[in-house]
Amino acid sequence: MQRWSSWSEMEDQYREGALALKTARDRLKDEDYQRTIADREIMGSMIRDLEDTARVLKRKVLYEFGSLSEDELALLTDRQRQIAELRQRYSYREIAEKTGLAVNTVFYIYQQAVRKLKQAKRKKKEGIPPGLSPQQKEIYVLYSRGVKPKEIASKLNISREVVYVQLNRIKSLTKI
């Protein structure tokens, strides 16, 4: 069964498309200038269109109903999920009335939820599990590349014991 993309997922797809076109356009700059000028102009127009569409989709995430998928909702805190689930059907004002919160508070919580989802997607692309501290992220990346704990300690200017403690915490949060 085909699964529909959420507005949030579609925004990411359009942004990725624009980035891929920018990369291709940059590669054309190295080739014969006269031969590729038309291609670069067309790509520039396509990039602007994709970026414009991504901006529209970003507004839809914040202002239209049904903008998040079930998978995305599962990544949120209880309060964020509650607001986001209500946002699938109700306006910010209606949610404020149902929850007893101020409208701007409801909007702020929903914005936080959307930011959290975007960060989680970025980390997933980078291969970094969610929930790690900045130091744990550094240790995780180095360790997953095969760097030994002793080398990690010297690279990060921390003791070997700290590396082992953080690795144990990382292992309890992930499967490495």
Indicate the percent of residues in helices.
over 70%
Cα distance, first to last residue?
33 Å
What percentage of amino acids are in beta strands?
A: under 5%
Instruction: Report the total helices.
Output: 9
Assign the structural class, choosing from mainly alpha, mainly beta, alpha/beta, alpha+beta, or little secondary structure: mainly alpha
Overall pLDDT: 81
Keywords: DNA-binding
GO molecular function: DNA binding; sigma factor activity
Protein name: Sigma-70 region 4 type 2
GO biological process, one term: DNA-templated transcription initiation
Topology (elements, then pairings):
Elements: H1 7-29, H2 33-63, H3 70-73, H4 78-87, H5 92-99, H6 103-126, H7 134-144, H8 149-156, H9 160-173
Note down, in words, how this protein is organized:
The chain is mainly alpha-helical and 176 residues long. It folds into three domains: 1-63; 65-126, Winged helix-like DNA-binding domain superfamily/Winged helix DNA-binding domain (Arc Repressor Mutant, subunit A, Orthogonal Bundle), CATH 1.10.10.10; 134-173, Arc Repressor Mutant, subunit A. Helices cover 76% and strands 0% of the residues. The chain is built from nine helices and no strands. Helix 7 crosses helix 9 (160-173). The two termini are 33 Å apart.
Summed up:
With 176 residues, the chain is an all-alpha fold.
Keywords summarizing the entry:
176 residues, mainly alpha, Arc Repressor Mutant, subunit A, 9 helices, flat, WalR-like
